[in-house]
Probable transcriptional regulatory protein ACFSCX_12190 (Bacillus salitolerans), 239 residues
Amino acid sequence: MGRKWNNIKEKKAQKDKNTSRIYAKFGRVIYVAAKQGEPDPELNVNLKVVLERAKTYNVPRTIIDRAIEKAKGSAEENYDELRYEGFGPNGSMIIVDALTNNVNRTAAEVRSAFNKNGGNMGVSGSVAYMFDATAVIGMEGKTADEVLEILMEADVDVRDIMEEEDSVIVYAEPDQFHAVQHALKEAGITEFTVAELTMLAQSDVTLPEEGQAQFEKLMDALEDLEDVQQVYHNVDEGE
């Protein structure tokens, strides 16, 4: 499972190169989470998850506050949460999560990105069964044994705990996201290198060089779309 974390970390680093795009996407998802419930993260679980994730991407407080204030106002922007599934080069599998105010536009843009870059859209359920929804929480300054002891004392169940480079990574069921973070925060851990609710592939595939290049073009095309929030895949991108 450590290799999967490498993929998450690499993908995160690549996305961070375009901070304006990242901030715009977070502004939208924070607005939607705040609008769908209370604009207070202590009273709104979905908003709390989004804000924890935003923190690991260094989203400025001004972006967060602006989105929450907008949700408190009278303006009404309606967004639909959509999930697309498809196949990339050499049978690679891809899940695309989007947040849009124009379903037809988004569907057309996602389909076009697949078609122009060696992929094709699949039907609902054609790919997702090969992925597991997972909470991934990473931190520095602790060993895996220390983190395990903290979580055991707090009676929090997790799937796995891995040490990789300078980080310790906790993999857990999505509904344990807050329990894991709360236990760690109670133990004095307040900074996280990653705090994600993600989709992890049950097994990875390695692409030939040509297929890898085509896959990267497809990923760039999908992630560049304004309405796309997250893209998950099962490609081993290496160390």
The domain at 130-201 is CATH 3.30.70.980 (Alpha-Beta Plaits). The chain has three domains: 2-72, 80-129+204-233, 130-201. The helical segments are 2-16, 19-36, 45-56, 61-72, 103-116, 144-153, 177-186, 209-223. The first strand starts at residue 80 and ends at 87.
